[in-house]
Each structure stands twice: as structure tokens, then as C-alpha cells.
Write a structure and sequence with these properties.
heterodimer, A: mainly alpha, MetI-like fold, 2 domains, about 70% helix, B: alpha+beta, six-stranded mixed sheet, five-stranded antiparallel sheet, globular
Chain lengths: ~280, ~325
């Protein structure tokens, strides 16, 4: 960036950046604020911003009405389980595609990506019926598998991109230096691929954590994760915005904290190896 | 020991024959340079010797032992790559130690060799840094350090200097030559730069399209190029190659005359022309002479102090005894 910017321009850019940032995070901020209001204040018009009676009553109500920890645990199992399973499948796949490409490697990658172009609802009925006949509806194992399959193309693509950044000459150097395949993987490949694997893992945990379509359609109680926990507070009897907000805040809090502490890895994951 | 023999070695990638069957013998302690234009197969040939590519035919003997099927690790060779190929997550010390660690060498012996290599290569102050914190020249020295600690039977260099800037390249060229003088280990060095080939080699192997065009010492290749290709490739600036009636006069299809073997005069000579570009380097002057009627431009090397410039008329006279004659098939007559 050798371009010159005046102080005025910089101020303008700063204001604009803050504006856009606030706009993007507004729904989350509003949800968190609402979770501390009374139900009456939550739907007050004009809306109240900060001068309301801060209360924890919604959180108490939500916790007495449902078992947060069970949903939380289901979310953890589904998000982490599907991601780990996905990595176990995707690492060897991406490895061979990056280091031993054949003339069909590109086609396979495109084919995998193309499955993401189909709307999920298109296969809901067959998946639902299939799981029902296997007796797997509302089980964690079904959710882990489905979520793994849903995110597999992304995991493979991300890992493939990372692995391809590892120069082949370094692996050849290790071979010349007398490393066996096992030592080559342990001492050279893996340490170099760890940042890529870590950001893939994080991004996919978040994707699986927030996934609502499959979790809502394939679970009822036993395997229901936090997305179902939120949905259970938007009942036909009427909306309780404050309680819904409290439930949402509790659902996103773990992932928000995780994301906050792994920002650096996540940004690297999102830029997809575009910047070295 | 580091005697390497190639017998009928060939390489095909699918249908494409990159290296037709060839024979080559490299004596122990020799500095051999593979030189040729891009895509001539010189790097592939080196990788076949290294074991990083499998041969499609023929045998590779290292110290008389058939190593054709041996893995790179088992061949006892060390390689220095164009991109240095250092391990970015390891310190310089660990990079240099890596081959010894893989060989299971005792720690104190590893340390002794690392210190010796670091001292020889001026890396002592950088042993705890990562490769990313080093300059290009230092990285190249680390790569060389990693190669020498193994005490291999031969070193393989794959265009090791082409990522360095011009000044550094000359320095590293000298360092590698000194290293060879000190270690007296076989070295095989791949480059497309004929200056590197001429300055470093005991023996030059000129390659084109996977074929060996000529093998010989630098001066043999300079004095007696076997064909038009070698004549044009070896020497800087390039040899002037003239065809048509000019060549027929000497009973050849093509004649070659090096820029340094042409006499210059402002009054008389064999060929008359006009100076297109003149390059005054101080030590030498290069003229690119146009309008001669025998070629687009003839390159001439003249005295550094000569006072002729662009547009001046000039007479050229080739030294007849330094003239190279080539026949219809491109081979030397």
C-alpha cells in the first residue's frame, strides 16, 4: 500500500468501517440486549436501548423450562464429531489429490463442490425416509454422519488448497535426506500442514454448530442440539422475544467465544490460502 | 567414492520420450555440469540419478552397485534444490541436523558436524534462526550445509543459484568451487547458464531435447564444438553462425566465428558494416554490426579503449584459423 491517505480520508474510512461493522453485528448485539429485558420491554415501541431494567429472569426461566446442558452436549458431539470424522476422510483424500494428482483430480473436486449447489431440501425426503427405516431418526450418530457428508466437500477443498501450498521440493528434500515415508509425514508434512488443518477444523465446527436445516428436521428430543433449543422458544402460543433472545445468546455464546480466541486461524481459513 | 554410471538410461512421461536412452560415466571426484536450454531434460536426468523419478529403461550404477531400484534415501547422494527446500518450521540447526537424525547418528557427532559445517559456511550466528529470517544467500548456504553433513558420495545441485541476484551468484559460484576443491567429492550440477558451466566444471555435458550433444572439458567444448548447437550454446557472447555463400566460400553449410576472433578496422577488412549497438564495458567493447550483407548482425569483441560508436562504419576480418565449419547435418567438418 504505497498510496497516500490524508487524515480526513482515514477518519472517513474508520467511520465507515465501524458503521459496517456495527450493521453486521447489530442483530447479535440486539439479541444479547433483548435477553436482559423484560418481555414487555422486549416488544416496546419505540424500542428501548440501554435504559431498561436489566434482569436475568429470562435466563432463569429458560433454564428451568429446558435442559440447556443436554442440547449443548448434543451440539458439541455433532459439531466436533462430524468435523473429526470429516477430517479423517478428507485428509487422505486431499493428500492424494494434492501430491499424486491424476488427470481426473480436477473433475473429482468439481463434482464434490457441485453437490453443494443442490438445495438441501431436495434430498430431505429420501434422507428422512432412509434414516427412519434404519431407525436412526433423532440419533446423534445420524446427525454426525449427515453433517459430515454435508461439510465434506468444503473440508476436502480447504485441505487440498493448504496441502498444495506445501512445495513438493521440500518433501523431495526430506526423501533425499533419508526420511522414510513415515518420518516424512511426522517430521515434515504434518508440522507444515497443522495451521491449515486447524483452521479447517475450526471453520467446520462453526458451520456444523450453526446448521439448522438438518438438525431441526431430523431430531426431536434425544439428539436435538442448540438450534432446536432456540427453535423450541418460538412456539405457536406466541413469541416470547426476551426468552428467545436468552436462548439464542446461550446457544451462540460457546461458538462466539471459540471464534474470538481463534480469530487468527479463522481469517486464514476464510481467505483460503489466497494470502501467504 | 562417488563413481556414477548411466547405462542406456531413458525416461518417458506417458507417450512423451523426454530422455532417449543415453550412456554417461561420471568419475569419482569430478565436477560435472549438465547444461542446456529450458526443457532439455537436464533436471530430469538429475532427478533420475537422485531417485526422485523412476527410469523408464536402463541402469544407474553408483560405485559399481546397481542403484536403479534403490530409494533416494538409500543412494547416499545429497541434493541442493533451486528453491533451497529448507524445512520452514525448523531452525537452521535442525535443518542441518535432519539427515543425520534420520540416519540415527549419535547426538555429539551431529553437534560436531553441525558446528564444522556452520563454521565453513559462515552460519554460526544464524543456527537458531528459522529459514524465513535468512537472506537468499544464507538459505542457500543452509541447504549446502544440510547436504555436506551427510558426507554423501556425490552432491547433486539443481540450478542452485538461479534464485539469487547477480552479485550473490558470482560469490556463491566461487564458494561452491572452493567447496569442491576442499571436499573433492563428486558433484553434479545442473544449470542453464553456460557461464556457470564454463567456470565451475571439470566436465560439461551439453544436453538438447534429452540427447547428449557433447561431453568434454570447458575448453574442449569452446575450441572444438562438435556441432552447430554446442557452438551456439557455449561461449558468451554467442558465436556468430553464418550460412549461405559466406559459408560456401569455406566449403561448409554453416561457419562459426566467435566474437573474440574477429579483427576490427576502420579502413579495410573482409566484411564491411555499420555499428548498430556498441557496449563499452571498460575491459572489453562489444559491437553488434549491421548492414554487412551476410547476416542480420555480427557480434564482435574489441579492445576496451576503442573509440567507435553507434552508426560508425567498420571493417571486420575473421581469424581464419579460428573458424569452425559445419556440414549439412550440423556436425563439425
Amino acid at each position: 500500500m504505497a498510496r497516500k491517505t490524508t487524515t480526513g480520508q482515514r477518519a472517513l474510512i474508520t467511520v465507515a468501517a465501524w458503521g459496517i461493522g456495527l450493521l453486521i453485528s447489530f442483530p447479535i448485539i440486539w439479541t444479547i440486549l433483548t435477553s436482559f429485558k423484560t418481555e414487555a420491554q422486549a416488544i416496546a415501541s419505540p424500542p428501548v436501548w440501554f435504559n431498561f431494567d436489566w434482569t436475568l429472569q429470562n435466563y432463569i426461566d429458560v433454564n428451568t423450562r429446558s435442559d440447556y446442558l443436554r442440547y449443548f452436549w448434543n451440539s458439541v458431539v455433532i459439531a466436533v464429531g462430524s468435523t473429526l470424522l470429516g477430517l479423517a476422510v478428507a485428509i487422505p483424500a486431499a493428500w492424494s489429490m494434492a501430491f499424486q494428482p491424476t488427470k481426473n483430480t480436477k473433475n473429482v473436486l468439481m463434482w464434490m463442490l457441485s453437490t453443494k449447489m443442490m438445495p438441501a431440501v431436495g434430498v430431505l425426503v429420501p434422507v428422512y425416509l432412509g434414516l427412519r427405516s434404519m431407525g436412526l431418526l433423532d440419533t446423534r450418530i445420524a446427525l454426525v454422519t449427515i453433517m459430515m457428508l454435508m461439510n465434506l466437500p468444503i473440508i476436502v477443498w480447504m485441505l487440498f488448497t493448504y496441502f498444495r501450498e506445501i512445495p513438493g521440493e521440500i518433501l523431495e528434500a526430506a526423501r533425499m535426506d533419508g526420511a522414510s515415508l513415515r518420518n516424512e509425514i511426522i517430521y515434515v508434512l504434518t508440522p507444515m500442514a497443522v495451521p491449515g488443518i486447524a483452521s479447517t477444523l475450526l471453520l467446520n465446527v462453526i458451520l456444523a454448530w450453526n446448521e439448522a436445516f438438518w438438525t431441526l428436521n431430523l431430531t426431536t428430543t434425544n439428539a436435538a442440539p442448540l438450534t432446536a433449543f432456540i427453535a423450541s422458544f418460538s412456539s405457536p402460543q406466541g413469541l416470547f422475544y426476551a426468552k428467545l433472545s436468552a436462548a439464542s445468546t446461550m446457544a451462540i455464546a460457546p461458538i462466539l467465544i471459540l471464534g474470538w480466541f481463534s480469530q487468527k486461524q479463522l481469517v486464514r481459513g476464510l481467505t483460503f490460502g489466497a494470502v501467504k | 567414492m562417488g563413481n556414477i554410471t548411466l547405462e542406456n538410461v531413458a525416461k518417458r512421461f506417458g507417450e512423451v520420450e523426454v530422455i532417449p536412452p543415453l550412456d554417461l560415466n561420471i568419475e569419482d571426484g569430478e565436477f560435472v555440469v549438465f547444461v542446456g536450454p529450458s526443457g532439455c531434460g537436464k533436471s530430469t536426468l538429475l532427478r533420475l540419478i537422485a531417485g526422485l523419478e523412476d527410469v523408464s529403461g536402463g541402469r544407474i550404477l553408483i560405485d559399481g552397485q546397481d542403484a536403479t531400484e534403490a530409494s533416494p534415501a538409500k543412494r547416499g547422494l545429497a541434493m541442493v534444490f533451486q528453491s533451497y527446500a529448507l524445512y520452514p518450521h525448523m531452525s537452521v540447526r535442525k535443518n542441518i541436523a535432519f539427515p543425520m537424525k534420520m540416519a540415527g547418528m549419535p547426538e555429539d557427532e551431529q553437534k560436531r558436524r553441525i558446528d564444522a559445517a556452520a563454521k565453513a559456511l559462515n552460519l554460526t550466528d544464524y543456527l537458531d534462526r528459522r529459514p524465513g529470517q535468512l537472506s537468499g544467500g544464507q538459505r542457500q548456504r543452509v541447504a549446502i550445509g544440510r547436504a555436506i553433513v551427510r558426507e554423501p558420495s556425490a552432491f547433486l545441485f539443481d540450478e542452485p543459484l538461479s534464485n539469487l541476484d547477480a552479485a550473490l551468484r558470482v560469490g556463491m559460484r566461487l564458494e561452491i568451487s572452493e567447496l569442491h576443491n576442499r571436499l573433492k567429492t563428486t558433484m553434479i550440477y545442473v544449470t542453464h547458464d553456460q557461464v556457470e558451466a564454463m567456470t565451475m566444471a571439470d566436465k560439461i555435458v551439453v544436453l538438447q531435447a534429452g540427447r547428449i550433444e557433447q561431453v568434454g572439458s570447458p575448453m574442449e567444448l569452446y575450441r572444438n564444438p562438435r556441432n552447430v548447437f554446442v557452438a551456439g550454446f557455449i561461449g558468451s557472447p554467442k558465436m556468430n553462425l553464418l550460412t549461405g555463400p559466406t559459408a560456401a566460400e569455406y566449403g561448409a553449410e554453416t561457419i562459426g566465428i566467435r566474437p573474440e576472433h574477429i579483427g576490427v578496422s576502420t579502413e579495410s577488412g573482409k566484411w564491411k558494416g555499420r555499428i548498430g549497438v556498441s557496449e563499452h564495458l571498460g575491459s572489453d567493447t562489444f559491437f553488434y554490426v549491421e548492414e554487412t550483407g551476410i547476416a542480420d548482425a555480427i557480434t564482435v569483441r574489441a579492445d576496451g579503449e576503442i573509440d567507435l560508436y553507434h552508426g560508425d562504419e567498420i571493417w571486420l576480418t575473421p581469424q581464419e584459423d579460428k573458424l569452425h565449419r559445419f556440414g549439412k547435418d550440423g556436425n563439425r567438418i
